[in-house]
Amino acid sequence: MQITAAMKMVSAAKLKKAQDAIVAMKPYAYKLKQLLEHLSAALGDENVYNPRKGEVRKVLLVPITSNRGLCGAFNASVIKKALELKQTTYKDKQVQLYTIGKKGNDVLKKYDNIIAHNSEIFDKLTFATAAALAEELMELYTSGKYDQIVLVYNSFKNAATQILTEETFLPIQPIATKAKGKELNTNYIYEPSKQEIVEELIPRSLKTEIFKALRDSVAAEHGARMTAMHKATDNAQDLKNELILTYNKARQATITGEIIEIVGGSEALA
């Protein structure tokens, strides 16, 4: 009980920092994603990150789990979702995995379709480390090795609630050119040129998206662990109370037995 209570306090302290980081980042990341969708619709075939013509055949799933356990169903839900997507949504596709986090890799590696694994990224999560991962994924898409890259992770809502999220990282899904019967204005004036936007702004937006997903997962992990340790502490307290009651009953039975023996002996002497 002391151990689980201490772990709860540690997770609560880490959660505050992680929560502040993701709450501050989400509005920026959301607006940037909107801009990215509009740009993709306007750039069309000039954007190498847009959907390719033809059928999607090769899919890369990127399940994001934690390096440590004792956080309830946090990791199990991501692993289950990744396997479910492979067997249902993408059952007719060539599906491979790029695992982020030790716990997910330990379970999924038995399926023998993992192309790469990264658990060191959580040791020091910064924009630079997230950008390196994003560049690797972007290269896998632009090289034509995969037609679609999908992130599977837990999104942070609050300390007690994590939302299992399935999100297409690449290709960028261009916003529909029509909305509610109205044409969307995609006639932009580009400054700098379209080419520079494709080479600089869009990759930066994709890197931010990966960084947001990783931060989201970290905050959700601390929330899940804090909740799990709180429940474990309560269960340990209940068990302690039951053991105290059992001990008291056993002690009382022993005392009663000793009294009976003393009374019986004194009567025999009399």
UniProtKB/TrEMBL annotation:
GO BP annotations, alphabetical order: proton motive force-driven plasma membrane ATP synthesis
Compartments (UniProt record): Cell inner membrane; Membrane
Keywords: ATP synthesis, Cell inner membrane, Cell membrane, CF(1), Hydrogen ion transport, Hydrolase, Ion transport, Membrane, Transport
GO CC aspect terms: plasma membrane; proton-transporting ATP synthase complex
Molecular function in Gene Ontology: ATP binding; hydrolase activity; proton-transporting ATP synthase activity, rotational mechanism
Membrane topology recorded in Swiss-Prot or TrEMBL: Peripheral membrane protein
Highest taxon in the source lineage: Bacteria
Subunit-structure text: F-type ATPases have 2 components, CF(1) - the catalytic core - and CF(0) - the membrane proton channel. CF(1) has five subunits: alpha(3), beta(3), gamma(1), delta(1), epsilon(1). CF(0) has three main subunits: a, b and c.
Family according to the record: Belongs to the ATPase gamma chain family.
Function noted in UniProt: Produces ATP from ADP in the presence of a proton gradient across the membrane. The gamma chain is believed to be important in regulating ATPase activity and the flow of protons through the CF(0) complex.
Protein name: ATP synthase gamma chain
Species per Swiss-Prot/TrEMBL record: Capnocytophaga ochracea (strain ATCC 27872 / DSM 7271 / CCUG 9716 / JCM 12966 / NCTC 12371 / SS31 / VPI 2845)
